[in-house]
Design goal:
127 residues, mainly beta, 7-stranded mixed sheet, 4-stranded antiparallel sheet, 0% helix, 48% strand
Length: 127
């Protein structure tokens, strides 16, 4: 069982930055690939970024490549999403998720494979 708690959301102007954090409970954090997803009002949840169990592999949605950076600290059971050059279209509730994976380098992009989810944190980017 893994419990995830996101923090760091808020209101920011276009072009600004936010740093989202996800704290995970449990002693097996390093056995999970970690991902960030987001859901805007009236839209489906979409993949944002993922990192492998060892942090050595990462994946990004095309819409955030070059602007967002995902990282993890297995010693602190934490995954970070650094978001720069934010745009109004980045406005959404952002969710942290954990996917149990065998291979240490997998970066899942499909929500269906993520077993545990946080409660979400709101990010609002004003124009």
């Amino acid at each position: 069982q893994v419990q995830l708690v996101e923090s760091g959301g808020g209101l920011v102007q276009a072009g600004g930055s936010l740093r989202l954090s996800c704290a995970a409970s449990g002693r097996t954090f390093s056995l999970y690939s970690m991902g960030w997803f987001r859901q805007a009002p009236g839209k489906e949840r979409e993949f944002v970024s993922a990192t492998s169990r060892n942090g050595g592999s990462t994946a990004y949605a095309d819409s955030v490549k070059g602007r967002f950076t995902i990282s993890r600290d297995n010693a602190k059971n934490t995954v970070i999403l650094q978001m720069n050059s934010l745009k109004p279209e980045d406005t959404a509730v952002y969710y942290c998720a954990a996917s149990p994976t065998i291979a240490p380098t997998i970066t899942p992009t499909q929500a269906v494979v993520y077993r545990y989810w946080g409660q979400g944190t709101q990010v609002t980017v004003s124009s």
